[in-house]
UniProtKB/TrEMBL annotation:
Claim: Mitochondrion is one of the keywords in the record: yes
Alphabetized InterPro entries for the sequence: Bcl-2-like_sf (IPR036834), BID (IPR010479)
Role played: Induces caspases and apoptosis. Counters the protective effect of BCL2.
Protein's name in the database: BH3-interacting domain death agonist
Species the sequence originates in: Hypotaenidia okinawae
Pfam families: BID (PF06393)
């Protein structure tokens, strides 16, 4: 299995946990294969700058500093689990608003081997933006778009579980590019 890039560890863990806690996930067996990619529940220094991490005398990092207090990786993972569960609840509401055609169009893009990862990420971005405009929501736009991307991932994988690896990877990249700072802010709150 390929080790995930440290820069997307947080997004990887958040999306994985979102899918794991979603009640209508039809691809649980395939989802377990993503956990073996390393780092899903071990987020070492994933959302802190180097100066925010306390070094022990032996040179090992002991955890994260948040508001001047040391926060362990287990605590960070618990925060991610709580946030993912909250986002999954919102996702359940959005799920009903997403038309099958939007999902099927994305499935076709993911099946198209001629499209590069960048092109598929762009298609995902366009679909999320269209849905964000079409679905009325009183929540902040970044949160709505983040949830929509995750719900689309779930719906695509529910439609065609064999695409899970590709859609998951694309969504992690998209979330990292578009919402990384927003996620960092959520984790720090």
């Amino acid at each position: 299995m390929e080790q995930i890039n440290r820069s997307v560890q947080m997004e990887h863990a958040l999306l994985y946990t979102f899918l794991e806690v979603s009640p209508d996930c039809k691809f649980r067996d395939q989802l377990q294969s993503l956990q073996g990619q390393g780092g899903v529940f071990l987020l070492k220094d994933s959302y802190c700058d180097e100066e925010e991490v306390e070094l022990q005398t032996d040179g090992n990092r002991s955890g994260h500093l948040q508001n001047g207090e040391l926060v362990s990786d287990a605590e960070v993972n618990e925060v991610i689990r709580i946030i993912a569960a909250q986002l999954a609840e919102i996702g359940d509401q959005f799920d009903k608003e997403i038309k099958a055609r939007a999902v099927n169009d994305l499935v076709q893009h993911f099946l198209n081997e001629n499209l590069s990862a960048e092109e598929i990420t762009q298609r995902m971005s366009e679909a999320v933006e269209r849905l964000a405009r079409a679905i009325p929501s009183d929540m902040e736009q970044e949160k709505a778009m983040l949830v929509l991307a995750m719900v689309l991932t779930k719906k695509i994988a529910n439609t065609m579980p064999s695409l899970l690896q590709r859609v998951f990877s694309t969504t992690v990249t998209y979330i990292n590019q578009q919402f990384h700072n927003y996620i960092v802010r959520m984790l720090r709150e």
